[in-house]
Structures are given as C-alpha cells and as structure tokens.
Amino acid sequence: MKITINGSEREVHADPWARLLDVLREDLRLTGTKEGCGEGECGACSVILDGEVVNSCLVAVGQCAGRAITTVEGLARGPEALHAVQRALVACGGAQCGICTPGIAVCAAHIVDTGQATSRDKIRQLLAGNICRCTGYQLIVDAVEQAAAEMTRK
Ligand code: FES
Ligand code: FES
To answer: How far is the CA of 13 from the centre of ligand 1 (A)?
Structure first.
C-alpha cells in the first residue's frame, strides 16, 4: 500500500492489520513515535492522520492506505528549523524524561497549527489525551501558549 509519510509517498509492505505504531517504528524506522500504554490511554504514540490526531497503537496500517501521516519526525523543517512548539518545549522546560514528548509535540503542533490554542483551558482540554507523569503540565501549556503567540506574530 502507498502512504504519504511526512510529505513523501512511501510503499509500505505490511500486514494490513499490523498496528501503525509498529510499522512506523519497526518497518519505517521512525522511532520518534513512542509506545506507552499500547491501549489508547496515554497519547505517547500520537501521529496526525489526514489532519486528525490519532493514537497509532489503535490504528491498523491498512486503514492508512492512500492517506497522509505526520509523525514527530515530520514536524521540523530541518535540523535548524524545529517547529515552534518543539522550540517552545525546549525553552520552557516542558520535557523531562521525554517519553511523552513526541506525542505531546505532535498534538501541540496540531493545536497550534489549526489555531485552536485560544486559552490555557482549551489547550489543557485538547492535550487531555496525552499523559505526562513528570511535568505537571504547567510547563507544557506554557510552551503551547508561547508557540501560539509566536505563530500569531508571524
Ligand atoms: Fe498509544 Fe498509549 S501507546 S495511547
Ligand atoms: Fe516524562 Fe512527560 S516528560 S512523562
């Protein structure tokens, strides 16, 4: 099947029932996407599928044929051009152990890019599916606000 991944069309040879998470990590070596719970509860495996954030542990790769996926590797425009959310997470100290961070970055980038970061409450609500055991969320919400403000200034 053909899947557009981070802007490039890829030919994927996999059991259509394989988890998208496993195909990304093991077949395509896109190991930025993490496995936390494996049950759709933590958001560590978040990717964007046709403009919607999904838990890749719950998606069969066959569901992705002909569609477009963005993983955390696709957020940056190059080593010197991290997404505003990634830069803000670094600047605000919004990452500690880092296991949640790729999923948070993907979800937060989607929130900012779609203009949904309209208030701290809204950001918290939209990030509710992404569990972080380390940061207490405050610094993550700070980072999303900072990134949204930067995008607005552009
Ligand atoms: Fe997919 Fe936790 S690993 S939601
Ligand atoms: Fe450790 Fe979020 S930084 S779980």
So the answer is: 23
